[in-house]
Description:
Pfam families: Germane. The chain has 194 residues and is an alpha+beta fold. α1 packs across α3 (80-93), α1 packs across α5 (137-151) and α3 (80-93) runs antiparallel to α5. The protein has 6 helices and 8 strands, in the order ααββααββαββββα. It starts with a helix and ends in a 6-residue tail after the last helix. The chain has one domain (2-18, 57-191). A hairpin with a 5-residue loop joins β7 (171-172) and β8 (178-179). The strands form 3 sheets. A 4-stranded mixed beta sheet has the order 3-4-5-6. Strands 1-2 form a two-stranded antiparallel ribbon.
Amino acid sequence: MRRAAGCLGVLVLVAGCGIPTQDQPSQVAASEIPAPLRGDGTPQPSVPATVDPGDSSLLIYFVRDDRLIGLPRETPTGSRDDRLSEALDSLTAGPSEKEQAAGITTAFPAGLDLAVEAVDGTRVVLNLSGETDGRSATDNVLTVGQVVLSLTSLPSVTEITFVRDGTPVEALLPGGALTADPLTAADYLPLKHN
């Protein structure tokens, strides 16, 4: 139940971020994109860090200095569903007290609930629900990045999509664009902490 609540919370954040939906993509002016999301032109690695398929840990992404940092978490070595649930629980739980003391935070809102709606090959469809307060674009993109990078740290997951009541939900990309296309770790690499 806690896992489902955590999953739904993230999706509610994405859906309730105050960004209106639209039929066509629109360009966001560079001056309106928060500085941490614009990047500094430094090339980013082309592949995300993943854990070994036989490993009992995975990376859960949190926030440090408006960037995403992957921290290892122990997880069941059971099925992909068990590991997905554990990853969502870890996102919902947030950083430990020791991690918080080291400056690690989360953009994941308390009112957002995520649940695995479906798994299609290596794509995971997450259903979001719950209520969230109006949040900044930076917080929204960091939240989506936390979810995407954390779940794709599982070797059996390469893409994430979000739905609310069966309807696709657009997600904010680091460059400021909205997309309902499947999201990959590569989409959020510009947000990773060096």
